[in-house]
Amino acid sequence: MNFALETILGEVRIRSVWIFIGFSLTWFTCYWFSEELIFLLAKPFLTLPLDSYFVCTQLTEAFSTYVTTSSIACFYFVFPFMSYQIWCFLIPSCYGGRRTKYNQFFYLSGFCFFLFLFLTFSWVVPNVWHFLYFVGTTSTDLLMIKLQPKIFDYTMLTVRILFISSICSQVPVIVICLLELKGISVKTFTENRRFFMVFSLFTAAFFTPPDIWCQIVACLPIYLVIELTIFVALIVRVRKEQQLLSGQVGQDEEESSAS
């Protein structure tokens, strides 16, 4: 018992050291290239017309933006490595079919994470800023409004959008994992839709500014992803039941013909 506990603690220590080393090296690298990272986040806004640029209103705002951007980028870069270390720690205790199933969940999680991140960064963020820019910029004889966003606020709002996308990417994986491991049935999901709506609202309220429209826009994708996953899971369950029923019918026919 003591030997097994020491082995587990030693493995935890090794994985923790690797994660710490990877996080430290990645953070310093991200901070070294923080200006390039901010440029990537600001590129959708800088491509807009009418001499778009950012402003700073505090002495420490630029430094805070560099540090915050480096930390968030470090998390995104280290997340696959950290997931791999956790996988290396947990997978030896699994056998046979369970190990194969966990590997499928792991690959599905990584695929959804990078797919949602790519779609959000390449399509959602540019369209959001394009819409907000032309809504917030007005030039008439009576009124002139020119948008000059603060670099820190812009970066934080862009990061919130990316975080919401990351959460949406893992919702299907969690739902499929619970269904496959028989932790929750499809019937339970369908009967408790209101709790998923509350979960979507709380998640949107946590990651978006205190504005009702922003929270609604952030809540809808999360809830739609949950509903789509439940719908697909329901289709898969019906197909499995039909296959089992057809197999049972075929077996009964073979037994009757043999008799």
TrEMBL record:
Record's keyword annotation contains DNA damage: no
Transmembrane domains' residue ranges: 12-34, 63-84, 105-125, 161-181, 193-209, 215-236
Main localization, broad class: membrane
Compartment(s) where it occurs, according to its Swiss-Prot or TrEMBL record: Membrane
Key words of the record: Membrane, Mitochondrion, Transmembrane, Transmembrane helix
GO cellular component: TAT protein transport complex
Keyword DNA-binding found: no
GO biological process: intracellular protein transmembrane transport; protein transport by the Tat complex
Membrane topology: Multi-pass membrane protein
MF-aspect GO terms: proton motive force dependent protein transmembrane transporter activity
Pfam families for this protein: TatC (PF00902)
Annotated NCBIfam families: tatC
Similarity comment: Belongs to the TatC family.
Name of the protein in question: Sec-independent protein translocase protein
